[in-house]
Amino acid sequence: MKPSNDSITDQAPADPAATEDMLANQPIGYWSGLVHEAVTRHLRDAMARIDVTQPQYWVLNRVNAGPTTPSREEVIAQLTPLADGPHEIARVIDQLLHRGWLRSDTGKDLHLTDAGEAARVRLRAIATELRADVHRGISDEEYVAALKVLRRMLANVEAPGES
User: Fold this and answer.
1) How far apart are CA 152 and CA 1, in angstroms?
2) What whole-number distance in Å separates Cα of residue 53 and Cα of residue 38?
């Protein structure tokens, strides 16, 4: 069911200088895109200073995440939707194998080495510090409310049969 025209807020052009009373008219895609780019850049810049990439961190976390060890193919399938291209995760796995942070057994399952686990723990500490930077001045309740709104917006545009 579509809302009546009298309940629809007019869409204004994106305005980085919009005052608080103008925010209801601002496009979510513009603002969520800015936040995504800035937060990703902040994280990737911090990781680059220690010669690590965000996708490398993803792979280390994924290999560590479950009760069973994942195969190379499972890690690629799970992380490719987040990656910058269809071949990035396979390359990252190769980099981590070369670096000695991962090893592969004969069944092609991936395992963290001691060096890989140490790197994962260090990267998690960096990510936690950066999260604190991003969340400064934002309560957990505000953060949860923002995510609920974003999830609802995603559901609204991905609803089956809607266009």
Assistant:
1) 15
2) 16
Three-class HEC string of 98-157? HHCCEEECCCCEEEECHHHHHHHHHHHHHHHHHHHHHHCCCCHHHHHHHHHHHHHHHHHH
Is residue 104 classed as helix, strand or coil in its secondary structure? Answer: strand
pLDDT tens, per residue, the chain with 163 residues? 455 555 677 788 888 888 888 888 899 999 999 999 999 999 999 999 999 999 999 999 999 987 889 999 999 999 999 998 999 999 999 999 999 999 998 878 999 999 999 999 999 999 999 999 999 999 999 999 999 999 999 999 997 765 5
Q: Is the pTM of this model over 0.90?
A: no
- Looking at the chain, how many residues does it have? 163
CA distance 139 to 154: 23
C-alpha 107/C-alpha 149 separation (Å) is 43
Joined together, the tokens standing for residue 139 give 């309560």
